[in-house]
């Protein structure tokens, strides 16, 4: 799902009560954050790019364009399993600009030979969101690491009876979404 699916122009919300407009704006911002997490975990470059304005800055410890950050992220080993969870999302709206603080927890799992590792990280995204052409996207992101550790684990549990997560476009969520889309267009 891209931001086009959840955008509302300023004209479309002009007649709504202020409180309702604020709720819609905040929900669009939250959905953008969630799409970013799916994009980074599933190696979905187009989805990640859609979460940022074209001139956006991303600072994951090194300030660069969001496009450059995403390009570098796509060069990482796709066999490393990633999961991002977001928790508290505080949105401070100021018209077409919002300051957003999002707490996150991320896990990465990988193997080196017969050894297995898990990296756990906790932190926050400090984002400047801007609404342009009716769409809320990240204009500037600063990633704040609050805690991180790497642990060696004894092994991994392999259960053939479960659906395993993978990368775009083969992850079960994309397969299921395509099935739903096809069924909707067949009616």
Ranges where pLDDT stays below 50 over 5 or more residues in a row are none
Main β-sheet: number of strands, strand sense, barrel status? 6 strands, mixed
**What is the percentage of strand-forming residues?**
35-45%
CATH topology-level fold name: Nuclear Transport Factor 2, Chain: A
N-to-C order of helices and strands: HHHEEHEEEEH
List the helices and strands and how they pair.
Layout: H1 10-13, H2 18-42, H3 45-50, E1 52-59, E2 63-65, H4 66-73, E3 81-94, E4 97-112, E5 115-132, E6 135-153, H5 172-186
Parallel strand pairs: 1-6
Antiparallel strand pairs: 1-2, 3-4, 4-5, 5-6
Describe this structure in words.
It is a single chain. This protein is an alpha+beta fold and 187 residues long. It has one domain: Nuclear Transport Factor 2, Chain: A. It has five helices and six strands. A hairpin with a 2-residue loop joins β3 and β4.
Q: What tags apply to this protein structure?
A:
single chain, 187 residues, alpha+beta, Nuclear Transport Factor 2, Chain: A, 6-stranded mixed β-sheet, 5 helices, globular
Quick recap:
This protein has 187 residues and is α+β, with helices and mostly antiparallel strands.
């Amino acid at each position: 799902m891209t931001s086009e699916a959840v955008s509302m122009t300023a004209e479309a919300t002009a007649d709504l009560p202020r409180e309702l407009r604020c709720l819609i704006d905040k929900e669009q911002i939250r959905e953008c954050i969630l799409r970013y997490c799916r994009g980074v975990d599933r190696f979905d470059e187009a989805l990640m790019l859609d979460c940022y304005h074209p001139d956006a800055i991303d600072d994951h410890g090194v300030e660069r364009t969001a496009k450059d950050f995403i390009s570098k992220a796509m060069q990482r080993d796709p066999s490393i399993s990633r999961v991002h969870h977001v928790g508290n999302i505080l949105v401070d709206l100021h018209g077409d600009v919002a300051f957003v603080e999002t707490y996150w927890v991320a896990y990465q799992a990988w193997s080196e030979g017969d050894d297995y590792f898990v990296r756990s990280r906790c932190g926050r995204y400090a984002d400047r969101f801007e609404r342009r052409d009716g769409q809320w996207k990240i204009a500037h992101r600063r990633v704040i690491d609050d805690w991180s550790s790497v642990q060696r684990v004894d092994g991994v549990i392999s259960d053939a009876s479960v659906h395993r997560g993978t990368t775009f476009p083969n992850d079960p969520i994309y397969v299921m979404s395509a099935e739903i889309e096809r069924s909707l267009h067949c009616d």
